[in-house]
Design brief:
Shape: globular
Helix content: 40-55%
Largest sheet: 8 strands, mixed
Structural class: alpha+beta
CATH class of the domain at 365-453: Alpha Beta
CATH architecture of the domain at 365-453: 3-Layer(aba) Sandwich
Distance between the termini: 50 Å
Number of strands: 16
Length: 454
């Protein structure tokens, strides 16, 4: 008999793991609500016409495509089968695909519902996405994204709000982080000043690797991309820019004084820093010129959050984009958004053991089952406890008490309630604390009050 398996790059989650993940999702969701964001959901599958061509050639290859229902070969060109023309075959056999991210479906949502939406629109989404990627450590084919975006507003106040949200979420989760910030306009200005405007992507991809490969290798990569030695020399003080955010800005103003777009980027960064200074942050906010993040996509501020106590990639990121909905025929809708990497946050919290010790989702008290009469005495009490918001269960069979206690232990149930003949006669309950072993005799009302006070 074949052993059951799951697809590579996917995972099962035990009840304990789901409780931990719900703690992350609930923390993020509560902060989103706190800042006035409204939740939407979009289908797991979208029309391929919506998804294709939005993520570049590599992204298109990573889309999971869904075969048409019924006879999916009926409209297929026989020659394409004989010639193994995979792209054409896929287009003929598949009309739908699993969503690759939450951003493109959100853009489609905004265009389809533009007459019902009030702009600026503050939306958040917590849903799974799928990528036909090669599975490896920390990279999955199915994973959750937690996105928040504000669309239909150019105000930099939105960037300030998102920085505060990133700060608040990580503070509540107990993760020490550094929020890194850059601006696409500054990077464009740098490329302009050194005379390599057309090589901006090559420049930023190279300097983005500074932490991993070091300055010497960055310079080798820049030269390999055809960037002149003069331009590489001019780049050095920018790549190695150090000091406080204000000191960096003072130097940048001198370096980029001849670039209009570069100066605009510096002005935006200054505004964001001034506003965040007024409200204060728990985390450090650092201007980092080596931060690039999907450069073709962003047009203004760029953000990335690094955990300080764990070696892992960024756990949150985002930025400003100017034409989210243009691909669907609705141009000039500016937006800014962030995405929390729930799966990486899950790994960080596990490594640092930062989960709360007691879970609100766990059973609080288990009633021991001695038999039919005792069950009839307990059932109304179960309802009373649940009405009072206490997570309660009763063991379904009247088996040995040792087995029932072992069940409570295995499921980390902190209290066991014992009702036998004596307790029924006295209209009372014996409550055992499973951690300390202490037992207390109490009335029904005292039992409910005990859990309400805990």
């Amino acid at each position: 008999m074949q052993k059951p398996t799951i697809p590579k790059g996917t995972r099962d989650f035990s009840p304990e793991e789901v409780a931990k993940r719900n703690y992350i999702f609930d923390t993020i969701r509560n902060v989103f609500h706190l800042y006035g964001f409204k939740q939407i959901e979009t289908p797991a599958m979208e029309n391929l016409s919506t998804l294709m061509g939005k993520y570049g050639e590599e992204g298109d290859k990573l889309l999971f495509k869904i075969l048409n229902s019924g006879d999916f070969l009926k409209d297929v060109n026989k020659e394409d089968i004989e010639n193994k023309n995979l792209n054409r075959l896929t287009n003929q056999m598949c009309e739908k695909g699993l969503r690759y991210d939450l951003t493109v479906p959100f853009a489609r949502f905004v265009v389809m519902h533009r007459n019902e939406i009030t702009f600026p629109f503050r939306r958040f989404q917590i849903q799974p996405v799928w990528r036909a990627d090669r599975p490896q450590k920390g990279r999955y084919r199915e994973f959750f994204q937690c996105d928040a975006d504000i669309v239909g507003s150019d105000s930099l106040l939105n960037e300030v709000e998102l920085i505060r949200m990133m700060d608040e979420v990580h503070k509540r989760l107990g993760i020490r982080v550094c929020i890194k910030m850059n601006n696409r306009k500054i990077l464009t200005g740098i490329a302009e000043i050194i005379g390599e405007s057309d090589k901006i992507t090559d420049i930023t991809v190279a300097i983005d690797k500074l932490d991993k490969i070091g300055l010497e290798n960055v310079n080798i990569e820049l030269a390999a991309k055809g960037i002149s030695q003069k331009a590489i020399t001019q780049l050095q003080p920018i790549i190695l820019l150090a000091g406080s955010n204000r000191e960096k800005i003072t130097i940048l103003k001198k370096l980029l004084s001849q670039s209009e777009i570069g100066m605009k980027g510096i002005e935006e960064v200054e505004t964001i820093l001034n506003k965040t200074d007024m409200v204060g942050l728990n985390s450090s906010l650092e201007l980092d010129l080596t931060l690039a993040r999907g450069l073709n996509y962003y047009t203004g501020a760029i953000f990335e959050v690094k955990a300080l106590d764990v070696e892992i990639g960024s756990i949150t990121g985002g930025g400003r984009y100017d034409n989210l909905t243009g691909v669907f025929g609705m141009p000039d809708v500016s937006g800014v958004g962030i995405s929390f990497g729930a799966d990486r946050i899950f790994d960080v919290l596990n490594q640092l053991d930062l989960y709360p010790k007691s879970s609100s989702q766990r059973t609080k008290v288990l009633f021991v089952n001695f038999g039919e009469k005792e069950v009839d005495f307990i059932l109304p009490l179960l309802s009373q406890l649940r009405d009072a918001g206490v997570n309660t269960e009763i063991f379904p069979e009247a088996v040995k008490v040792k087995k029932q206690m072992s069940y409570a232990d295995s499921n980390k149930i902190p209290y066991v309630a014992i009702v036998g003949e004596n307790e029924m006669r006295d209209n009372s309950i014996q409550l055992k604390n499973m951690e300390t072993g202490e037992q207390k005799n109490m009335s029904k009302d005292e039992l409910i009050q005990y859990f309400n006070l805990e």
